[in-house]
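Example with several molecule types.
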Amino acid sequence: MKVVLEHLTKRFPNRNRKGDDVIAVNDFNFEIPDGKLIGLLGPSGCGKSTALNLICGLEKPSDGRIFFGDKDVTNLPPESRGVGMVFQNYALYPHLTVRQNILFPLQNLKGEDKLSKEEMEKRALEAAELVMLGELMERRPRELSGGQQQRVAIARALVKTPGILLMDEPLSNLDARLRLQTREEIRRIQLRTGITTIFVTHDQEEAMSISDEIIVMKDGVVHQIGAPQSVYDDPTDRFVAEFLGTPAINIFDGEIKGGNVLLGGDVIGHAAGVPGGEAVIGIRPEGFKIAEDGPMHCDLGRVEVMGRDTSIVFTHTSAQGKQLRAIVDATTVPATLRESAGAGSEGKVSFTVNPFKMYFFDKTTGERILPKGENR
Amino acid sequence: MKKDLKAWLFLIPAIAFLGVFMIYPLFDVLIYSFEQGFNFVSQSFAGYGFYNYRFVLSDPYFLQALKNTFILVIITVPVSTGLSLLISLGLTSIPKLKELYQTIYFLPYVTNTLAVGLVFMILFKKTAYSDGLINLMINAFGGSSVDFMDGPYWAKMMVTCIYTIWIVLPFKILILTSALSSVNPDYYKAARVDGTSRARIFWRITVPMISPMIFYLVITGFIGAFKAYSDEVALFGVDLNTAGMNTIVGYIYDMLYGNSGGYPSFASAAALILFVIVFAITCINLIVRKKLVYEG
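Resulting structure tokens for the full complex:
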């Protein structure tokens, strides 16, 4: 089922009564296509959980409408919306067994929807088998690992075959290894059931790795929506560029003059058609290439070996951050560089910059500056 | 070895204190209860046997006290626990004036028992000038006055039960409101998303989650009610046997210091009977607990 949000807004009254309302969700307008896995991504406190609660029905919107398919569900309570929800702490009832937890939503059905005992058992078992928990039905939640609890929560959310599955930070309570495993598991279940899924996360890697589309938001405002790779390659503004990617993008104060990109007087690249003036320049770590005669002269900090790649930490006078980082192919690092970094002397390093990994942003608004005639 | 000695040295003050004031009296009571024909003045007795128990168990005053205590326990423990649960639920669901209501409900806890007794006098006692507030209300609805303080047994028992419930309610409300607020709200959210009815949320989620606290209140409620005495004194004065409202603890007190006082052997026997009853009830409670209570 597709989800459509129209001008969806949620305001909370300020804690101290004199202050302005806090706008947790500000004028959301987008459509989530049927059967896709969507990552709602943003830093903590940006309103993504509120957005999820609005879609779920646990919060009432201040303005705007929500449609599931063609049906307006704005004023429906959560149970009439046909959504399944997985909570951050799973919210499994600790006094009930896995079977009882999964059966719980089915036992709530009334009237025409009421199921026979056998039917309920059958559905619960199906849901448990979908998440591969068939053998653990009689366990209590605390006898399960974090990943298993997560799967019980998913089974419980799916047992009523909802049209939409919502997940609030589904992986944040798991350790690193389990996180990797579980996110693939979520993807597998989503693909198998074909259920429209929206999940909230602050971890960009998590969102990028499994989502069909990501929605990047900050302070209640949607900054960009798109396929993970295209959002990464083509960010609309400085926030999105900085938020996506590990290590983070390197930010410089520079200038664009006559189609040239200037960084502290050095021309480090060309930007044909880009309007001139001062600009914030962002360069992805993988956009650097070591070259003895390269135009970008930097002070070497240290060299971190990571096996396939090498991470070079350096500084530059025009940089906004203290430390900059380049990720380069290990084979391209000259031995001399490694030595000079190790000696702690004042080493130098020069780079050429890949123009496709370089972005220009407005100094004040943070908006992306694109060459004239090019639209996003 | 030396270390052990040191440890014992540090323990001596506590052991001496507990020994003199707790352990020795416990055994002394046990011995007293088997000493037949004990003479308080000469501190002598005739021999050991079960006579004290036979006497106490056939004493009509004791049987009356036993009956009163059991009625009190059976009525006040479930009613006060249920009522406090209801009030706590109400308190946690109202967003406004919650603190005010909480304060009001907690007031009886900090009020002196005897002052509460005075309030009950105003409500229930028949005097030369007035039949008491409750009787005025009964009259207003066309009923005839009931003498709650010196009248029929069940009228007196009702007042006692109301009084006891009123006294124990605040503490239970306090415990249950904090238990209720410690339930993770995500459980309720999850239940709402699944379309769970309010009754089902209450019975299948709320009650199991706070069941350890409910159980704690039931067990301490039982013990407290079996030990009832001061509430009855506040209502009916010290001569509880005449009022027919004596309790087991009241009987023990009377045997020691009351008008018929000076019989520590009978008092000890009665105390041990009370101990056996409370012990048995607590054991039953603990067995029931295993079946009913969810251990978090």
